[in-house]
Structures are given as structure tokens and as C-alpha cells.
Amino acid sequence: MPNTNDLELIDRLSNDDRKAFEEIFRTYYSELCGFCLKYVRVETTAEEIVQEIFINIWDRRAELSITVSIKAYLYTAVRNRSFNYLKLQLPKEQKKVEVDNIGIFESDTREDEMMLDELKEQVKMAIDQLPNKCRIIFNLSRNSGLTYKEIAEELDISVKTVENQIGLALKKLREQLQPVWDKIMVLLVGIFCHFF
Amino acid sequence: MGNPEVKLYEYLIGTLSEKEAGEIKSWIEASDKNQMIFDQIKSVYDNSEINEGQFKPNVDIAWNAVDLATSNTPKQKQVFFSTFYRVAAAIVVMVGLAYVAMQGDLFVDYQTIATGEDEQREVQLADGTVVTLNENSQLRFPKEFSSDERKVKLVGQAFFEVARDEMKPFQIVGPQTSVQVLGTSFDLISRVDYSNINVVTGKVAFTSNNNDEQQLILIMGQQASMSGKTMVNEGRLDSNALAWRTGELTFNSTPIAEVVETLNQHFEVSITYDEQISECLITSTFKDKKLKEILEILYTISKIENSQDGDNIKLSGPGC
């Protein structure tokens, strides 16, 4: 149930009150973008989706029917739109320029100074390189908190497919990151040697 | 043990039963190799988390975009650079994060494709226009174009082959500039403070989003760029600027300085050269050649030697 404050805002909104609209926007925009990011992984995409939702709300303000809190309504909208967006990405196979895996990491000129928190960047890049479907499914599992079954339902695929894609992601990521881990090992050994 | 990697992952996300969790723990402890595999999966798991707390979108800019898109100004008639865009451009500050949702697009279903590092993608739009996206770029386009215009948004670089339609000009809105065409092919770099267009066929109007009097009409074989607030007609098209797509680099009595600059951009390396060879002019076409091969060919044609120190390459030679 919307609380009193929510009810008042919804009422003002349906009566064309821009200030109410702006208040709702400013209250929830950032957190909704953060929530959306967990689904879509790209910041500009997350912002666009959330902005579209607000534009849509204003456009339909006269017929809006919110039976839950404004917050819950917005989160549900983000979730639905995010899934719609991801589903559209599924059939497209990306054409990748074939890059020698070892080559990617060797072009890093700061080899000796590679800090361990670059690992997060490397993992992100490796995930970026996964095939569409694989990346989307892996990310949903890792970051949106959905079970295989829930992911399968939302994307209209089988649970087995979800599981296979996650297995594929793990395999590819381990392969891609092997040289990085080797370097970290060398770095760590180097650090330890300094102490003895 | 079916697929240990998946089971290890499930162990980390916490979806295994107590019994299964126990089994996995035994598996890990069974050997050093297993332990290593677990460590790697854990590393992937730890570092793939999306920390949304670090994402701080600019709410003011976003509000301006939404405010604009929902405000009650009457829809403009088909004027290329209407008041709407001038206002929109003034508000869309050079941050490039929030797209301005455009009036009249409320009922149009948009799609965004994005490329990452070293990735290229091709997409065909509803009107037959083909867009090839270079790495680290995003293209936003409607699934179906509206009845009086064709409008897309680009950040990054792409090659466009625009299907001809005199009734519906094709417009590409970027963070800094906009391009308007009837039916042409061209290469476009569209970024927050740098834009560049090379027109291969047809005719285009290249305009600053901030000031629609800053505009150049370019025809086939011409090039223009915009850096900060300065728009420049660069004269002749640079066919090497298309090399990312065609894989072809062409030099025609090109001074070594320019050759070096082109190679630096295309291969993302850092080449310098000795005074001695600065007079050399290179005539050669390289199709899908690796840098190493090109350097060998430079030796064959002009006795230019190279020494490599990581990403830094030095060219030297007896001169030409």
C-alpha cells in the first residue's frame, strides 16, 4: 500500500503537478540506475532505461494505477524494462575481431607495476568479451540475485541452457584470465622474496 | 563430479544444499590442483561483482533531459535544426552520460547496441541503412522509424551506409555534433569533445549541437572535424581513417611523418623516427597486414630499419 506521502505525490502527479514529478525523480533516480546497472552492466544503458520509465510515467500520469509503494512500482518497472532490453540483445551474435588472448595482456606496458586491483578491470574486460547470451546470463546470475529458474523464465529459455551458459562463462573467463593470474603469482612471489 | 567449475560457482553464490556443499569442500581439499581451480573461480566471482554504489549518475543533467522530453512544447515541423535542438544542446552538457529523449519519440521503441574493447558490430536498421560500429561505441536507434524522420544517436565511431529516402532525412545526433543526410556513406567519429566525418559518397550536413550556425555541407571525398568549439573543414577525405573497417592502409608519396602518425593510430603503438629519414616518401598499399609485416616492407622499399622497445618503435635509415 502506498503510504500517505506516496498517495499525496501520486495524486498531485495525476493532476499535472511538475513539482511532484520532479520530487519523485530526484528521490529515486540514482538508486534505480544502480539497480538497473546490475541487470544491464552498462551505465549509459541503465540511465536511458530509467529515464524512459520516468518519461513514460509522466506521459501516462492521468491513468496511473499504483497499488504498491512508489518505490516498489518503480523497481518493478526497472526490472521489467531491463529484461525486455536484455531479451532483445539475445539473438544478436557479436562479430568479434579475433584477438590473441595473450596479446591483450602483454600490451600492458606497466607489467611490473600491475596492481592487484587492476584484476577487477581485467575481469570486467574478459566478461565484456563473452558472447552476448553468455554474458547476459552470467551477469544476471552473478549480480541480480535471480535463480537459474527465474532467469530461464524471464528470458524464455530452459534452465539447462542457463546452467550451460554459466559453465561456458566460467570456462572462458578462466582461460582469458590465466595469464593475469600467472603474472600476479610472479608479483606475489617477488614481494615475498623481498622479505627474506 | 559433473562440472566442478559450475559447482564451485554455485557453492560461492550459496545455492548448494548442505550435502553438496560438504562434497565440494572435500573436492577442494583433495588436491592442490583442485584448490587452484577453486581460487580462480573465486577470483572470477569476487571480481565480477557490480558495485552499484560506485555508479553516481548526474541527477541534475538527467532531470534536465527528462524535463525537456516531457515538457509541453509543440512538436516542431520538419525543420532541420529547430529551436528544440538548440535548447536541448545547451542543456545536454558535455558529459555524455544522459541522452536527451526527444519529443515525439515517446511511443517509439528504442534499441541500443554497444561494443566493447576490440569489438566491431554491424547492424541493419529498419530502412535498410547499415551501420558498422567500431569498438567502445554505442548506437541508439528506433526499431521502426517514425513517419517523418529517421533519427539515431551515436557515441564513439561508426561507418554509415544510409539508405536513400528524400522524404525522410537521416539524422545522427551525437554528444557534440549532429549529421544530417539524404542517402550517403560516411565514417563518423562522434564524441563529447571531438567529432570527425569522412564522406565517402553523397552529401552531408555536419552541425554543432551547440550552435547551428556552425555547420558545413560536405560532399563525397571531403572531411571535417570538430574539436572543442572549433569546426574545421579538413579538405580531402582521409581514406586511412576508414582502415579500422577496411583493413586497408594506402600511402601515395606520403611523407614519413604522416605514415608514422597513421600507423600509430591504427596499431595503437608509439613510433618515432630519425631526422635522417624525414625526407622519405612512401608509396604502398597495405591490406590486412600486421605491423611487423609493414615494417619489413618499409625496409625493402626504403631501407628503413626499426628497433623495438616494448610499444616504442624507432625508425632509422640511410635516408631517401
> What's the overall geometry of chain B?
flat
Helix content of chain A: over 70%
Q: What structural category arises from helix and sheet content of chain A?
A: mainly alpha
Q: Got a strand count of chain A?
A: 0
Radius of gyration of chain B over all CA atoms, rounded:
26 Å
Layout of secondary structure:
The complex is a heterodimer of chains A (196) and B (320).
Chain A: H1 4-14, H2 18-40, H3 43-59, H4 70-89, H5 101-106, H6 118-128, H7 132-143, H8 148-155, H9 159-195
Chain B: H1 4-13, H2 18-30, H3 32-47, H4 59-70, H5 83-91, E1 110-114, E2 121-124, E3 130-133, E4 138-142, E5 150-161, E6 170-173, E7 177-181, E8 185-190, E9 194-201, E10 203-208, E11 215-219, E12 222-227, E13 230-236, H6 243-246, E14 248-255, H7 256-267, E15 270-273, E16 281-287, H8 291-302, E17 305-309, E18 312-316
Parallel strand pairs in B: 5-6, 15-18
Antiparallel strand pairs in B: 1-4, 2-3, 3-5, 4-5, 5-8, 6-7, 7-10, 8-9, 9-12, 10-11, 12-13, 14-16, 17-18
Helix pairs in contact in B: 1-3, 2-3
What does this structure look like?
The complex is a heterodimer of chains A (196) and B (320). Helices cover 74% and strands 0% of the residues of chain A. Chain A has 196 residues and is an all-alpha fold. In chain A, helix 1 packs across helix 2 (18-40), helix 2 (18-40) packs across helix 4 and helix 3 crosses helix 4. Chain B has eight helices and 18 strands. Chain B is flat, with a radius of gyration of 26 Å. Chain B has 320 residues and is of the alpha+beta class. In chain B, strand 17 (305-309) and strand 18 (312-316) form a beta hairpin. In chain B, the strands form three sheets. In chain B, strands 1, 2, 3, 4, 5, 6, 7, 8, 9, 10, 11, 12 and 13 form a 13-stranded mixed beta sheet that branches. Classes of the chains: A mainly alpha (196), B alpha+beta (320). At the A-B interface, helix 2, helix 3, helix 4, helix 6 and helix 7 of A face helix 1, helix 3, helix 4, strand 1 and strand 2 of B.
